[in-house]
Sequence to fold (154 residues):
Amino acid sequence: MRAGFARMIAVAGVAVGALVTGSANGWGQPLGDTTQYLMVNSGKEAAVKTGGQGFDGVSLYCGSADTCNTLSVPDMAGHVLKTITGLDFASPGANAPGSYYNDPKYNQYVTYTLDSLTGQKIGGLKFASGNTAFELDMYRSSTPPRPRFPNPLR
Fold:
């Protein structure tokens, strides 16, 4: 499944955060993105829920990835499976004075995938920014098809 945040939020719901276009003081449009994207401003959080069945994996396009960005990945019960901070994926110099938010090295995809054999599912995503903003779009989720085995009792 691939969707911009506007479509995903219409389905899943989001709390705090804004769907924006372009760039302004404190946040920057992800490189090459001309659609609405999710911007979570300093000290704020946004959360989305996957709904019914959950997902095995998610991928996001992060614009101007900063070390102060945090992505939390909860399971279907709301327990955090993984916390990914900007320190895990931001390029060196991301927060340096004069760093340019539209530099390709600061705009990148972040992917998190579960081992489908564990039975765990991603139940949502939580985004937070400790400074400036967390900008993201191009949300993708995956639920691989389950193998079908013939009924041995037939």
Observations:
- Confidence is low (pLDDT under 50) at residues 5-15, 145-154.
- The two ends are 35 Å apart (CA to CA).
- Residues 36 and 119 are 33 Å apart (CA to CA).
